[in-house]
Design a protein that fits this description.
The complex is a heterodimer of chains A (about 80) and B (about 350). With about 80 residues, chain A is mostly helical. Chain A is built from 5 helices and no strands. In chain B, the strands form 3 sheets. Chain B has a 7-stranded mixed beta sheet, with helices on both faces. A 5-stranded parallel beta sheet of chain B has the order 4-3-5-6-7. Chain B has a two-stranded antiparallel ribbon with strand order 8-9. Classes of the chains: A mainly alpha (about 80), B alpha/beta (about 350). At the A-B interface, helix 3 and helix 4 of A face helix 5 and helix 9 of B.
Chain lengths: ~80, ~350
């Protein structure tokens, strides 16, 4: 079972890869809308990638209002 | 379609629609690839009446106000119907607001009943703003886990009254909904919408974009929004049509819904419309040169033949694959809420899919 730290790091790495940013350029507390300059649709696409990676389903309501990687990783962790 | 000129209120029109179209499908609810619900007008009534009775038993009466804070799903519409049936005023609030903002609006609206979903209630109940909205006396929460702490709320699924509720008549000039709009100044204001506003808007809308039994509307815009409330609830219901709800708005599932449910109408925000355009354009660009030339030739013919007005039959024959990707039944896309680029509207029109921009 992954720890929250491992999950957070994987979320950051996947987001960086998906949006073609250098590894290590994202931090857990970053607002992904601002940092990645993405809209709600692109966020949904990123969530689908994360679901496939972690093998979970993350209902839309679970991520409603979430805008930073740390909270997103916590929501993922709770479903692992 | 019901003759809405004969009706005084939303509740009265919906009440008759549920009887007139009792065997037609009115709601389909899907969660990703899974279909969760398929209700006829009869089963919709069977779900709504016990809720209406329980509201009445709790003292909810003509002019009482009830708020709904939910994502698009069948229980939104069932709850709204129960509120209208019992003569209440609906306060539809945006589930994307912060809990503090929602409590402020709940207090301002004077709602005595709140109907919401468990994930939303989890945040609302933990918010300090709750203490201010003392007017909210009954909270009904849908889909709460068995062992969930409901923080004083009741389970929507168990809030059922025995026996038939009494229909409460309202007049056209009575308030039907209080709709909060941020307007251009950013300070929310509650717009008092009368039953007549909705009845007349429905007549105007359905004269341009008719619904009938068998028509399927894909509900994507939030139902608290004026557009979806009309084209994703009141409009189709007064015509015996069906509304399709998706519990996720991931693009891949939205795309799948068109052919799977043979969608007739959908309303979107410009961002999603633009995304659809980009996806289609990428597919057209990927066509081999020969096929691309044939495709562009067919689009050219379609443009010439539909210059003065849409001709769905011709467009569907000429551009069969494009229309089949949308399920083959799509008649129009309704877009609103922000500015749409004319090129995007034209792009879809040239493919034989008119976009109602409002």
């Amino acid at each position: 079972m992954r720890t929250l730290e491992q999950t957070t790091q994987e979320v950051l790495d996947l987001a960086a890869k998906h949006f073609q940013l250098p590894t290590g350029s994202l931090a857990p507390g970053d607002d992904f809308f601002k940092k990645l300059a993405i809209d709600s649709l692109q966020t949904l696409e990123m969530l689908s990638r994360l679901e496939n990676h972690f093998g979970i389903e993350l209902p839309d309501y679970e991520v409603q209002g979430v805008s930073d990687f740390k909270t997103l990783a916590e929501r993922i962790q709770s479903r692992l | 379609m019901l003759d809405l000129s004969k009706y005084q209120s939303i509740g009265e029109a919906l009440r008759d629609a549920l009887d007139q179209f009792s065997n037609e499908v009115c709601l389909i609810e899907a969660d990703r690839a899974r279909e969760k619900e398929r209700l006829t007008y009869r089963t919709f009534k069977e779900r709504a009446h016990p809720l209406a009775k329980a509201l009445q038993d709790g003292g909810f009466s003509a002019g009482s106000r009830a708020s709904i804070i939910m994502t698009n799903q069948s229980k939104w519409l069932i709850s709204a119907y129960a509120i209208f049936f019992t003569g209440g005023v609906l306060v539809p609030l945006d589930y994307k607001l912060t809990p503090d903002e929602q409590w402020q609006l709940l207090k301002h609206s004077g709602a005595t009943v709140l109907i919401t979903e468990y994930p939303i209630w989890r945040q609302l109940s933990a918010s300090a703003g709750r203490t201010a909205a003392t007017n909210v006396q009954t909270v009904l929460v849908t889909e709460a886990p068995a062992n969930a702490d409901l923080a004083g709320a009741k389970r929507w699924e168990e809030f059922r009254g025995a026996g038939e509720p009494v229909f409460i008549a309202r007049k056209r000039q009575d308030t039907a909904c209080i709709v909060y709009s941020s307007g251009t100044g950013g300070r929310p204001k509650g717009c008092m919408m009368t039953h007549e506003d909705y009845l007349e808007q429905c007549v105007a809308l359905t004269s341009l974009y008719p619904f009938w039994p068998g028509v399927r509307y894909l509900s994507i815009l939030p139902t608290n929004h004026a557009i979806d409330f009309m084209v994703g609830f009141f409009g189709p219901f007064t015509c015996g049509a069906a509304v399709v709800h998706l519990r996720t708005l991931r693009p891949e599932y939205v795309r799948e819904a068109f052919p799977k449910y043979k969608i007739t109408y959908v309303s979107l925000v410009p961002l999603v419309l633009k995304n659809l355009q980009k996806g289609l354009q990428a597919r057209f660009d990927a066509l081999p040169p020969g096929k691309r030339r044939v495709f562009e030739f067919l689009v050219g013919i379609n443009k010439a033949l539909t210059k003065s007005r849409p001709r769905l039959g011709i467009s569907r024959r000429l551009l069969k694959q494009v229309h089949e990707a949308f399920g083959g039944e799509l008649r129009a896309i309704i877009v609103g809420g922000a500015f749409s680029e004319p090129q995007t509207l034209q792009f879809f029109y040239d493919l034989g899919i008119p976009v109602a921009n409002g």
